[in-house]
Request: fold
Amino acid sequence: MATNQSELDSFRLFPSTDDNKTQLGLSFLDDSPEKPPLPLPPPCLEVLLSEVSSSIKPTFEPVNFDGLTLLKGRVSTHEVFALSNSDLVPGKYEGGLKLWEGSLDLIKTLRLEMECGNLSLVGKKVLELGCGHGLPGIFSCLQGASCVHFQDFNSEVLQCLTIPNVVANLPVKSESLSSEVRFFAGDWSEVHQILPNLQTDDLDSNCSSGANSSFGYDVILMAETVYSISTLPALYQLIKKCISHPHGVVYMAAKKYYFGVGGGSRRFISLVEKDDVMVASLIAEVGGGSSNVREVWKLQFK
Reply:
């Protein structure tokens, strides 16, 4: 995906202060009309590193981040899903083969957060939700995370793209790699059942009750995951089940609004604020003069 340089130049990181915590009243956003029910989601399963696709080989191209270069693969939706020119087929394919702008915004934000002393990934347990290419998770590996788990709706995305990207960027077969990397496919409403490191005896309890911090992930990353209104509650509940209490942090990159599908960062943040368990801070935005601003948010427990 070609990245517009003017958009990158307009990237703005906000200071992480209490003044940035916003209370957003979004009552003007009405729910979308009811739609036909989606097909049943694919089964949740772990995809092993050895289960990389042998029939579909991505072509790789560099993505540059001010001195850091990552490789990203390219495969077509026609090759993998027999779909032509489709970024999203709800319930079947959720856009994981495309490199969305939010993934790049997320990596830029993580680097700046580290430079400002607001974040360290060394020794951290990281989960990337809706990973697709997995570049933010790969970046976390390179920054010393102890384990990085990649999740996507489609196992085919993990086999044909995520795992090849990980192999292309990391010495995964070498003892020099300090991170444990694992891959999990499934719907957000069910995938917690197969994720490691969770407190399985009380997954549905409210995270504000003081769960043991040895369970869960220290950092959850997600880019362009909040496009669909119908999936936002399941995504938020999954975050609360997966995040370590009380010091876990979520970084979310997304467009302010996703026209035509009704979701967006502001819709998701409204859900978070109504729950009143986590606090959301807007820490970066991209393309402030464009018609649809991209944002990066940080979520933490109150």
